[in-house]
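subagent[fold] <- orchestrator: predict structure for attached chain, return tokens only, no commentary.
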Amino acid sequence: MTDDKIRALGLMSGGLDSTLAANLMQNLGIEVLGLHFSTGFCVADRHRLLGNSNNRDKPYRNDALHAGAQLEVPVEIIDIKDRYLPEVVLHPKHGYGSGMNPCIDCRIFMLQRAKEILQERGYDFVFTGEVLGQRPMSQRRPPMQAIEIEAGLEGLLLRPLSAQVLPATIPEERGWVDRSKLFGIVGRGRHKQMQLADEFGLTDYPQPAGGCCFLPDENYARKLRDLLTHNGPDVDPDDMMLLKVGRHFRLGDEVKVIVGRHESENDFLERFRDGRGSVWLDAFSSPLTLIEGSPSAADLEFACRITARYSAGRTEAEVPVRWRLDGQEGQLVVRPLSEDRQLDEIRI
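subagent[fold] -> orchestrator:
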């Protein structure tokens, strides 16, 4: 490597757009380092924790690392969970999108961290796979400009897939990157990106537009709002992890139950038994149910009935249900809950 080699940091989700952007930079002779930020809200984190519930023999794959391996680009995973929830999710300056997704603040936060790395290690500029008009909150002209300025990267943030319809950046003006070889993609469609993938020889990439974050999902956002309402802002990281799995039911202001939906979720919930109550059946195949809070005797019985409702003994008149709570264990013989209406009323 010569001393005048141009080096760039690329935000790498592992999706098609960021992979194409990195490949394009490589083709233009730029030395690339990929940065993948782990927020704790990534869909990929759920797959890593649960595996593939439909094919348990299929290994988990980190898409960012896989993309880096395909391109022979080093990718660093940077854990920002500790700061991301209190600084970005709970107090977004620019507000939320469709769920609890603070997309603009999220982008600024990640790019500010990228700028720190740029300065620490002597990189020349930062690039992303963003496409103008692709996402309604953060990928329109005004927010894209605001993000660049607030991140402290004015002129040093290149979006190569849409560069030809955006103002020229310092890398283009100084000849580090040939603007004529960049693209002017606009809109939500992925036709052009998939065409470029074929041209670049990229065949193994995640489904375009699949989404990489739980926060825009209304079901997840509803569970998060419920957690913050009842637990306050000082939530336990374990609670945040548990929002990603199971059926959640609110039995009272201080009592919630989480019911596993399949074997992978049961295995996952097993790790969180310490400090929580648990309910299960021995006589029939059943979910593992966790109880959070301090349940009354009536709450415990209702949790047992819910668990029986989702067990293989749901059609029985009565079933024995095991429970463990505050260091004690016991068994209740209960009638499985049969009315979906009762569940709908308490479902989070």
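orchestrator: received. Logging for downstream: The chain has two domains: 7-200, 245-346. Residues 103-121 form the longest helix (19 residues).
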